[in-house]
């Protein structure tokens, strides 16, 4: 959700609010991604929509991959927890592609934000992102070794994202032992030129994606610590699945 969207509630806020209300009393959880950074605006939006989860996805680094001061992000998430203790916080953690992963501060960033987060979600860092200042929707895969190290280090569940599709999500989950999986680009519909169409899901792809995630969960084993963590009350997006 952008500031333009939030700034015109009479035109477009109600459909989103209705979607949030539709999931109440069901097994489905909703999440809100604010694509703006003003704390007061974030708190007002959360108070209005009251989602199950708020998902923060700032890049957390500069374009060269150096960490930026996390103090503001920690402050916002901490204050959000004080005001809305019933709402969970998902924090995207940047993970570069395999060819770029040497020395990238994924684990250090996660350690700084773990205490004020309920879930981590990996996403692909490129340096030049499709939406400036935020990671995601690249269609590129993350370094699985780094993602696996994040899963091992974290005391909170880690959702695997970044270039996942029905064709690679099984192996990715087996490799990383993540608590769930998220897909955007590769479960979208395609236009006439074969390019993914944002915000339009191909439900057949989503169905296959979910089936592969469930298969991975069974392969890992219902008695594992990972699968036990997956049964916690976690957010489920359009293509986000917890095993």
Automatic annotation (TrEMBL):
The keyword rRNA processing appears for this protein: no
Keyword tags: Isomerase
Gene3D superfamilies listed in its UniProt record: Aldolase class I (3.20.20.70)
EC number(s) from the headed UniProt entry: 5.3.1.24
GO molecular function annotations of the record: phosphoribosylanthranilate isomerase activity
Protein name: N-(5'-phosphoribosyl)anthranilate isomerase
């Amino acid at each position: 959700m952008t500031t333009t969207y939030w700034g015109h509630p009479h035109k477009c806020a109600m459909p989103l609010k209705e979607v949030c209300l539709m999931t109440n009393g069901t097994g489905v959880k909703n999440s809100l991604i604010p694509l703006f950074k003003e704390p007061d605006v974030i708190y007002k939006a959360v108070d209005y929509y009251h989602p199950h989860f708020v998902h923060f996805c700032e890049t957390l680094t500069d374009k060269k991959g150096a960490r930026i001061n996390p103090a503001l992000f920690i402050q916002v998430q901490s204050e959000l927890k004080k005001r809305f203790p019933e709402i969970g916080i998902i924090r995207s953690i940047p993970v570069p592609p395999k060819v770029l992963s040497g020395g990238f501060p994924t684990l250090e960033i996660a350690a700084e934000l773990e205490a004020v987060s309920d879930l981590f979600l990996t996403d692909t860092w490129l340096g030049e992102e499709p939406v400036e200042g935020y990671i995601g929707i690249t269609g590129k895969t993350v370094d699985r070794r780094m993602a696996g190290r994040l899963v091992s280090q974290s005391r909170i569940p880690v959702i695997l994202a970044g270039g996942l599709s029905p064709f690679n999500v099984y192996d990715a989950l087996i490799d990383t032992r993540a608590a769930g999986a998220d897909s955007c680009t590769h479960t979208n519909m395609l236009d006439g030129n074969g390019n993914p169409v944002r915000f339009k899901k191909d439900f057949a792809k989503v169905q296959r994606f979910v089936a592969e995630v469930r298969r991975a969960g069974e392969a890992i084993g219902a008695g594992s610590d990972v699968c036990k963590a997956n049964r916690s009350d976690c957010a489920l997006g359009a293509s986000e699945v917890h095993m």
